[in-house]
Write a structure and sequence with these properties.
128 residues; alpha/beta; Rossmann fold; 5 strands
Length: 128
């Protein structure tokens, strides 16, 4: 997989640090934000290939961010992360435009595989 630019939006610093370590070792550029507001601002101001989005943030719900991204940057690849994994959460996130779903805790390999799968899916979509 070619290097990608990844934005991590998660209020758990240990998750942010782990994602940054694993992804940067693979040559990916990583930006970290700890709140929904900061993450949404980063999405609007920056250019990212992938967003790792926590569903439970202190200031906003991940579904709100997902909805805003679908309205403003529809082709952005969003991978939803949550410790509250359930089939209904996954289905809801995918219906609202998430590319993939990653349940916490996840391994380094699961993270890399999920990003690889999401990026391949995005690259194969026809441009509009």
């Amino acid at each position: 997989m070619k290097p990608v630019s990844v934005l991590v939006i998660d209020d758990e610093q240990v998750i942010c640090d782990a994602c940054q370590l694993v992804l940067s070792e693979q040559g990916h550029a990583v930006t970290l934000t700890n709140t929904g507001a900061d993450g949404l601002a980063a999405i609007r101001q920056g250019t990212y290939d992938v967003v790792l989005l926590d569903m439970k943030l202190p200031d906003m719900d991940g579904m709100e961010i997902l909805k805003a991204v679908q309205e403003e940057k529809r082709r952005l690849c969003i991978i939803v992360m949550t410790g509250y994994s359930s089939i209904s959460n996954a289905v809801q996130a995918i219906k609202k435009g998430a590319s993939e779903y990653l349940a916490k805790p996840f391994t380094d390999d699961e993270l890399l595989e999920t990003i690889g799968n999401a990026c391949v899916d995005t690259e194969q979509q026809p441009t509009t």
